[in-house]
Design brief:
This protein is of the alpha+beta class. It is built from eight helices and 19 strands.
């Protein structure tokens, strides 16, 4: 790269500092690396920072705002970059301590389900073992479930330890946002005694990504278009303004009960259009390609693979 190209690239990177797209990825060495995406290329943040940053998203988030600033400076001056198409993207946070999901949080979803306004936020967890990245397969066995559904959701990533946080300062605890697909086995979800656990927590049932976009890009995360497509057909098409419980409210509500740690994920609910409430219901099938796209967060894409 000549000097003029380097200056141009650094100028573009500087303009994009406020909306860093952070990724976890693998390259030829099959090791997990921490990177930032700029102009369709991936910058290795450990290398670009001269070793000042770790090669792990969770450790990076635990280091706090100082590490985030170091990452911004590294991106602005980076020379060594890989084409995005040459790396395998993982879930941006491959190993969160917990994924807390919110049910019935969109008014249009409440209407399609013919349910009344919930008095309290409905909550459940998805296990870290359910987390996969964009490009990974959603897998299930027909011996376990035959009613697998998609749910496009905005995922909030916690950036620092949060306990008893007031809603007024809740955004200070947000590292950024991701696409989430809250894949659900409906026949297990509503089976007596399961309490949604198996229906929500099967392995591969929590695709996240492709990027963690830092919160600077989103002064208000409640004004974003949100879609889910299956084999190119739009199944969900809404906006996060349909949320009943806002991101600050959820952080206050959840952190009053338990500590949210850096890298923890809050999946904020899904809008109307899920397969379960169509007439007749539409379930995911082998070979289906499911895409979740939220404005500014890229496209999360996963293929369905089914075994007997």
């Amino acid at each position: 790269m000549n000097t003029a190209s380097k200056i141009s690239a650094r100028g573009r990177a500087a303009q994009e500092l406020d909306d860093m797209k952070l990724v976890s990825y693998q390259y030829s060495d099959n090791q997990v690396h921490l990177g930032a995406v700029s102009d369709g290329r991936v910058i290795n943040l450990k290398q670009a920072s001269g070793g000042a940053l770790p090669d792990d998203m969770l450790r990076f988030l635990q280091l706090g705002s100082g590490a985030m600033q170091t990452a911004r400076e590294a991106v602005a001056q980076a020379d060594g970059e890989l084409p995005l198409d040459d790396v395998k993207l993982l879930s941006p946070v491959p190993n969160p301590s917990k994924v807390v999901a919110i049910g019935l949080n969109y008014m249009d979803h409440i209407r399609e389900a013919n349910l009344g306004m919930p008095e309290l936020a409905t909550m459940f967890c998805k296990y870290p073992s359910s987390v996969i990245g964009s490009g990974d397969d959603i897998r299930w066995s027909t011996s376990l479930t035959e009613q697998v559904d998609y749910e496009a959701e905005l995922a909030v990533v916690i950036g620092k330890t949060a306990r008893n946080v007031d809603a007024e300062v809740a955004y200070d605890y947000v590292a950024g946002y991701m696409n989430c697909n809250d894949v659900s086995a409906r026949d297990l979800q509503f089976k007596p005694g399961d309490q949604w656990l198996r229906g929500k927590c099967l392995d591969t049932f929590c695709p996240l990504g492709p990027y963690l976009v830092t919160r600077d890009e989103f002064p208000d995360p409640h004004q974003l278009s949100i879609q889910c497509r299956v084999n190119g057909e739009t199944r969900q098409d809404s906006n996060t303004r349909e949320m009943i419980y806002s991101v600050p409210y959820l952080i206050e509500y959840l952190s009053a009960a338990f500590t949210l740690l850096p890298g923890d994920v809050i999946a904020t609910g899904t809008p109307h259009g899920v397969g379960a409430f169509r007439d007749p219901p539409i379930w995911l099938q082998p070979g289906d390609e499911v895409e979740v796209e939220i404005e500014g967060l890229g496209v999360l894409s996963n293929r369905c693979v089914v075994t007997p």
